[in-house]
Amino acid sequence: MRSLLIITVLLVNSLFVPAQQKEDWAGFSRYEEANKTAPKESVVFMGNSITEGWVNTHPHFFSDNHYLGRGISGQTSMQMLVRFRRDVIDLQPKAVVILAGTNDIAQNTGYISLNNILGDLISMVELAQTNHINVILCSVLPAYEFGWRKELKPADDIIKLNQLIKDYALQHRIPYVDYHSALKDARNGLSEKYAKDGVHPTAAGYDMMEGLVKPVIDKVVKSKNKP
C-alpha cells in the first residue's frame, strides 16, 4: 500500500514538473526575438510596466532617439537583475536607464526590504559598469496607493527608497533623474493629470519624464563618444 502511495505521488509530481520548468519567471522570452535584431550602441530602458507603457504610448520617442525599451509589466528589481545580461549587457548599449522599485514596494514577489531593493539596483549598476555601459538611475515614481494592493501605503516607502538611490548615485557619481519631485501631488502620490490610476503615467506624464531624462542621456552619450 505504501509503495502504491509513493508511486502515485511521483506520478502526480511528474505532471507538474514540466509546467514549472517552462515558467519564465524572469521574462527571458519577452524580448528574446527582438534582441536578436536589436542595434548595438543604443540606450536601453530597463524597467517594469511604466517603461513598457512608455514605449507603447510614445513609440517615436524610442525609435527616433535609438532607444530600446525593455520593460516588463509587474516585474520587481530581482527579476530585472536576473534578465539584465540578456536584455542589457548582450545588447552592448552605450547606456542603460534603470527605473525599478514600484513593484518591490507593492510586494509583487513577496516582501523585500528597501535596502535589498537598493542592493538589486547596485548589482545592475555594477554589472553594467563592468561591461563598460554607462548607467542612469531614476527615482521611483510617486504613488499614494496601488490598485492591486490597496492595503499598502507606499508613499513614504517610495520617498525613503528614492533617498537611498539618490545617495548611492551621488556617492558613485552616477546620473540620477528625479521623476518623483516633478510628478508628485500634495499626498506624495501621482496626480490624475499624470496618471489616471495613480501609478501608470498618461501621455502628459511621459512628456514630463522625457523632458527630464533625455538631456541626461544626451550628456552621458556625448561623454562616452569623446575620444
Automatic annotation (TrEMBL):
Residues 45-207 form the SGNH hydrolase-type esterase domain. Gene3D superfamilies: SGNH hydrolase. InterPro entries: Ester_Hydrolysis_Enzymes (IPR051532), SGNH_hydro (IPR013830), SGNH_hydro_sf (IPR036514). The keyword Cell cycle does not apply. CDD domains: SGNH_hydrolase_like_4 (cd04501). Keywords: Hydrolase, Signal. GO terms for molecular function: hydrolase activity. Residues 1-19 form the signal peptide. It comes from the Bacteria. The keyword Signal applies. This is SGNH/GDSL hydrolase family protein.
